[in-house]
# Entry
Amino acid sequence: MKKVKWGVIGCGGIADRRTIPGMMGAKNAELIAVMDSNRDSSERVKEKYGAKYAFTSEEELLALDEIDAVYIASPVFCHMQQVTMAVKAKKHILLEKPMGLDVKEAEKIASICETEGVKLSVGLMMRFAAYHQKLHELILEGMLGEIVSARAQFTCWFPEMENNWRQQKHLSGGGALMDLGVHSIDLLRYITGLEVTEIAGMTSNQIFKYGVEDAGSVIMRLSNGAVAYVDSNFNVPDSASVSKFEIYGTKGSVVLYNTLSQVDGGEIEMILSDDSVGYDAMQKREDTKTEDIKVQFGNMYTREIEAFGNAILEDKEVYISAEDAICTQKIVEAAYESSKKGKFIKV
Ligand SMILES: NC(=O)c1ccc[n+]([C@@H]2O[C@H](COP(=O)([O-])OP(=O)(O)OC[C@H]3O[C@@H](n4cnc5c(N)ncnc54)[C@H](O)[C@@H]3O)[C@@H](O)[C@H]2O)c1
# Structure
């Protein structure tokens, strides 16, 4: 089988912990070189995964003709410049979320890739979780009827750390909403097929006083009139964090536990109801039974790498487009504006 030869730019948390291990399991991928501004990190990751080369500059990695694609997993403030360099070197790009520090940067990134004919996809890998893929299919087929409400909650513990890039707005673009909220909002759009038309956001620095929000909550009007809520918190201890995703429709509901995660798994409770039932003043619930939804769990990062690899090898559309990721980034940006102005913002 023909394989995509990969270079990795940024060998820190997510690259080392999840994406490179996922790449190792991908049938159509071969890791050639890694680069990190920190020499120890690039050397360590090269040894750990058996790459041929370790570099500390993008130029050296991008000069390798044998590399077809790069995975960029550096801090957000580096994305724009590294994409520009990779495009010049004609490498296809899988870029970590969020695409850029703001929508303007994200749009510029998409535009230069398009102009130069370089494929670009974004690391919104939770779309590849088994339950999310299954629900995308079932909900678009109408299994829950008309969607009327949805709610997502994704939290973690992220205390103050000196010089941490994520805690400085000019390096990260934002806090809990930008980092965690993008996944929830992206999944909401992906699974329901609905767009966000209007948003009210509230951000806080209630517990941690760093330069980005430690919590962000949004209420969103969806394109069919339904309302969705997303909570993103950096201030709930990991052991107490709840990952929960709920979707309600006129024919049933679904609640997912622990699928907003880097590991494919979790539990699902789906209840379907006959929407021909009439009004019941007793609001009986004792007959409800949950559906048996079968899925095959796997590795979301392997699926992400394989999907992007196939788009390159077969010259087809990428599964997660830059336009899609920009839509989500626009929603996050509108939430910041709403929080600042204390008003609903049209998206
Ligand atoms: N999709 C996901 O599951 C997921 C999860 C976490 C993070 N992310 C995203 O991945 C990106 C990286 O996040 P992280 O948590 O791995 O960060 P991190 O801080 O753990 O790692 C970043 C790495 O980049 C290196 N670095 C810094 N400046 C660099 C430069 N100019 N060139 C190359 N390398 C440089 C650092 O030395 C470090 O090794 C961010 O965009 C983040 O939002 C995605």
Notes: The chain has two domains: 4-125+301-320, 126-297+329-346. Residues 155 and 233 are 5 Å apart (CA to CA). The pocket of nicotinamide-adenine-dinucleotide is lined by residues 9-15, 18, 35-38, 41, 73-76, 78, 96-97, 123, 125, 179, 262 (CB under 6 Å). The chain is about 35% helix and 25% strand.
